Amino acid sequence: MANLLPIDFSQISTYITLAVILMLSVVLCMLAYRLMNVVPAKWLCDYDEEPDESLFGTRYIFKQSGIYTSALFAIFNLGIFAFFGYSYYTIFFLLISITMLLIAMSDFKYTIIPDQFTIALAVLCVALAITDLFTQQIFIKEWWSIPLGAVCGGGSLMLINLFSIVILKKNGMGFGDVKLMLALGACLGFPMVFSGLLIAVFIAFLYIIFLLIKKIFSKNEVSSYFPFGPFLCIGSLCSLFLVNVINYGLDLYFGLFSLSY
Known about the structure:
The protein has one domain. Helix content is 70%, strand content 0%. The chain contains nine helices and no strands. Helix 1 (12-38) runs parallel beside helix 3 and helix 5 runs antiparallel to helix 6 (175-188). The chain is globular.
């Protein structure tokens, strides 16, 4: 197992880099808000729909919620640097995180994940997976892990949707989520794609609990739409960062079976 790149926090240059990443994160977050205002309106609606008037005006305003988003985005990027240091991993994850932010903003507000964002994320995920395969092998050990991870990721959500259609007589998962998990699965590889899905489901469950509590105590109406795309992104990132911990836990688990024989 390749180790993550160490960071020497005794160097002044490290703190300068942290400050630069902090400021860059805020700028990128503000840029994401600006970008959501200029992307074609057609991107933010289904294929068979025409954009309504709300999509031609100002879509996002950088206000209090934007400040919170910037803070979380900055903390996340500082964590990236703490994990991977001065490496191409940091660059890849910085680009991936800003793309995921655009996906989350779109899914939360417009209940859609534009294909353009998903394609950009897929290119970055595949590039990271291939780079990792031929260098550190932190996430990807074998070449077949990339396509198999993508198929398992997208296929799992398609099976969930099929189950929902048969049992509940309605769609349980948007096809945008399926395409998103195809992209993320390529980066996670097999079998880590399943840990990403499990973490996503767990965090989504916590969010549902929060919504239920908010509905009880809030006078305002709580939206019934539940965006799963942001949680797929968060779960996948957590799985990538915790890859060593997850693999260690799996080794301990399967080690119990070997001791029983």
